[in-house]
């Protein structure tokens, strides 16, 4: 009964490919997030959805497209992958009081 | 630009000592303050949150908030080698469910 789950855990792919990462939460929260953590360990917010509505859309290449089919799911699709996209991508689920709970992460390696 | 600053460390303390981690923030309007622990290769884990000036204790952890001076700290009493991790400070930014993150402080507890 994992609270926030992500698939896949590891993703190795070549430049130019398209890939998706899926996230699901069973905490009953209305808000979900995508973060990118690069090799320097800085946690950078990418997107956030609240009840399927996009509420945070940081400066991210438009090759990245989030989608939230319902408030328990948030997916991230990445087109035309580049070497610089290699990072760990975390999904998180959040409460009204700003607490955020993270999934285990997806380690993306672009070769 | 709203910022959260932490000393990157590493902070090294002997087992059994008190570890003191500090964080300053720039937005005087921030109301919610969080400490996350991140072990190497794992996702951030929420360990403390504080909303009011003063101290909040939870087991060996104490969070301290001083809004006038715009700093929040985390004290870890009786430090254990298992506390060795990176500690991330996060502060809410406005009311759009976004957190501003520090770069983290690396803590090493030596047996």
Give descriptors for this structure.
heterodimer; A: mainly beta; 4-stranded antiparallel β-sheet; 11 strands; 58% strand; globular; B: 111 residues; mainly beta; 6-stranded mixed β-sheet
Account of the protein in words:
The complex is a heterodimer of chains A (111) and B (111). Chain A is built from no helices and eleven strands. With 111 residues, chain A is mainly beta. By secondary structure, chain B is mainly beta. Chain B has no helices and eleven strands. In chain B, strand 6 (54-58) and strand 7 form a beta hairpin. The A-B interface holds A 31, 41-43, 45, 48, 50, 55-56, 90, 94, 97-105 and B 32, 34, 42-46, 49, 51, 86, 88, 90, 92, 96-99, 101, 103-104.
Percent of residues in helices of chain A comes to: under 10%
Helix content of chain B: under 10%
User: What does the average pLDDT of chain B come to?
Assistant: 95
Please write the string of helix (H) and strand (E) elements of chain A: EEEEEEEEEEE
What summary fits the major beta sheet of chain A? 7 strands, mixed
Radius of gyration of chain B: 13 Å
Order of helices and strands of chain B: EEEEEEEEEEE
Span from first to last CA of chain A?
34 Å
Largest sheet of chain B: 6 strands, mixed
Number of strand segments of chain A: 11
Unreliable segments of 5+ consecutive residues of chain A: none
Tell me the overall shape of chain A.
Answer: globular
Cα shape of chain B: globular
The chain-level mean pLDDT of chain A equals 95
Biggest interface and residues each: A-B, 20 and 20 residues
